[in-house]
Design goal:
This protein has 319 residues and is an all-alpha fold. α4 packs antiparallel against α8. The longest helix has 29 residues.
Length: 319
């Protein structure tokens, strides 16, 4: 049995649960793929930010086979031990998750993958502060050094913004995307310690999956209400029309992009939930930040994002 990270739960409390390696691998593949697919949607004519928001959580039914498997292993039914407290906490966090997803959609629609990924690294700064306040995480020189470097990276990106705007994006739109990603980074950093607090009374991974299903169901309802209510977002009926007329890769590839986005976002979310449950919210934030330079490389390779001196320095700072 390998060593656990500080503050992590002993494995004998986690029977038949994916290991930290599996959770990390899911987070790795999901993080890179979901970000690239979301940007691909906007680059090739997609414009419905509410759809992009919904796609991030609407794949929650994919978690049901895992939930059924865990229920069979424990000779129980899904949600049989799910309390009102679990429901209320999951619903509240799910609403916050929906808002976070919406901010990501706005940010990625206006920013390159490399820029949005580097800005998202600021979540570690927020995460450290909130972890100290909410879950009494101890500070260290390494933690504080990471905060300084990541803050410097964001300042460098802001200073170099005039050379980094994608074609067709105005300065105002760029800054809207910039602030949206920073807002998303803050909400994600708040999400991590909140779920760690919620998991302190959870003894089975089955309950973690149940809470994740409820969170994402609430986030999906939030996005569906927004998509139906806001005519500027195209409405629900505008999705099919966009696939046929707006997306320049054709309706089949439109469906594939949307479908694969749902799958990869689920890998990202359940991987994060598993990491936080088995370790700490700060460990989850560190793992997330460590993966972001790979997103930067993915953006450069896939979309030809500009990778000048400012981004190079920022990428090294977050690595």
């Amino acid at each position: 049995m390998g060593r656990l990270l500080p503050g992590s739960r002993p494995y004998h409390d986690l029977p038949n649960v994916p290991s930290l390696t599996s959770g990390g691998l899911g987070r790795l593949l999901g993080s890179i793929s979901s970000t690239l697919l979301t940007r691909l949607y906007f680059v090739h004519g997609g414009s419905n930010r509410w759809l992009s928001t919904m796609v991030q959580s609407a794949g929650f039914p994919l978690l049901l086979p895992l939930l059924l498997h865990l229920s069979r292993l424990q000779n129980s039914r899904p949600f049989s031990s799910f309390t009102r407290r679990h429901l209320l906490i999951s619903a509240a966090i799910g609403l916050m998750m929906g808002i976070n997803n919406f901010l990501i959609s706005w940010g990625v629609s206006y920013l390159s993958v490399s820029t949005s990924s580097l800005l998202l690294s600021t979540q570690l700064v927020f995460n450290l502060g909130l972890s100290v306040l909410l879950v009494k995480q101890k500070l260290s020189f390494t933690n504080l050094n990471s905060v300084v470097l990541i803050t410097l990276s964001s300042v460098l990106i802001a200073v170099g913004s005039s050379k980094d705007r994608p074609p067709g994006v105005t300065r105002q739109q760029y800054w809207l995307g910039f602030l949206s990603i920073l807002g998303s980074a803050f909400l994600f950093s708040l999400y991590l310690p909140l779920v760690e607090m919620a998991y302190k009374r959870v003894t089975r991974y089955k309950t973690v999956v149940e809470m994740q299903v409820v969170m994402e169901a609430v986030a999906t309802v939030f996005a569906m209400v927004g998509m139906a209510a806001v005519d500027g977002g195209g409405g629900v009926g505008g999705v099919v029309k966009e696939g046929r007329e707006g997306f320049d890769m054709g309706v089949v590839k439109y469906g594939l992009v949307v479908g694969m986005s749902m799958v990869t976002w689920q890998m990202c979310f359940i991987g994060t939930a598993g990491l936080v449950y088995m370790t700490t919210s700060l460990s989850g934030g560190i793992c997330t930040t460590a993966l972001l330079p790979m997103n930067v490389v993915g953006g450069v390779v896939s979309f030809g994002d500009e990778f000048g001196g400012v981004k190079a320095v920022s990428t090294v700072d977050t690595s």
